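pipeline stage [seq->struct] | target=O-antigen/teichoic acid export membrane protein | organism=Mariniflexile fucanivorans | residues=433
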Amino acid sequence: MSKIKNKIKGIKSHPSYNKLLYWGKSISITALSQIVVQGLAFLCGILVIRLLPLEEYALYTLANTMLGSMTMLADVGVSNGVMAQGGKVWQNREKLGAVLMTGLYLRRRLAFWSLIVITPILFYLLMHNGASWFTAVLIVLSIIPAFYASLSDNLLEIVPKLHQDIYPLQKNQISVSIGRLVLSALLVFIFPWTFVAILASGIPRVIGNIKLRKIAYNFADESQKPDSIISKDLMTIVKRVLPSSVYFTFSGQISIWLISLFGTTMALAQVGALGRISLIFSLFGAIFGFLIIPRLARLPNEKHILLKKYLQTILFVLVFYTGLAIIISLLSTEILWVLGDKYSGLEYELTLSIIGFCVSTFAGVSFSFYSTRGWIIHPIIVILVDLSAVVSGVFIFPISNLKGVLEFNIYVASILCLMNFLYSLIKIKSIKI
């Protein structure tokens, strides 16, 4: 017994013990809360899939895709800039407040142009896919609450993430997820319409956004005004990111665009339903966003440290997602049963959808790494590489059916993944320290 106690004492006295204990607690707490959040989101998604008629779910998929495009167009690098700038002053409440207020100010300006560009496109695609004029207007109006909340959500989250004050953030996310599930269950069951489902999701986000502001302002001074110097630094990033961000606003959801324009309403609903399965993968993405990205942003600009941390992160992501993709592929029949009879027989398509999501996530990890360092690939290079992939993919794959579009998506994502990975390595190698 004494030998065992001595061994335990020896382990506790090891220099790495406290570090491992801290990471173990952080990951387990974050994982547990995200299991709840993503589990509730998954249930909400399945509920909407089952309650909405196939034609309505096709419109729901289209509206949510356009909401994501609007959010991207209202950001164009602002959140990356706030993370990069905030990582330098995260211990100073006034300076961090100035960074946050500047970021929010720029977001509001960009949101106006986002609405001007995306709203007419969404309206046209809704009408093209069978929505009446009145229904299209209701759907467009219903996305406003969620869009309003999205303007500040991820900027406000940066503050507690930098301070690793994760618990209040997770508590707020859980309450929002519960609100979405309850409202969806009550409203969509009675009114199985697209605009009702979108409102049921957007209203809890607005309430959660109000609570999120209180969490962020514990560490950032809300009385600070937008700073011209910070704004100039952020705009430097925005101007470099803007062309590629505008381009990727439209190409990032290329599978939805292609299906909505050249495919059928059924195929559009199917690709949206299969995409819901990717919420299973969002657990790790959330852990990565909470714990890893803020720490990568805070790392010193030293070559050997960055290279080691980057390769460790990439290896972990690769192993984790490959294993999870294999498991989901083996259980594809059982998973499709959860979606309902309308989506049965799509085992191969589900596997393709999951592979595409994994490759896109891998590319996103590299992008998150170098963007939080303030490194930006020249937009012309990004656009040319992606455009070449898209154009060649259109000729290689049959984009008028679901299988072809999913294979096309994997092809394009793989090329972007390789580009982001190589760029990260090149930038790390270029550091002289």
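stage status: PASS
auto-comment: Residues 1-245 form one domain. The longest helix spans residues 93-128.
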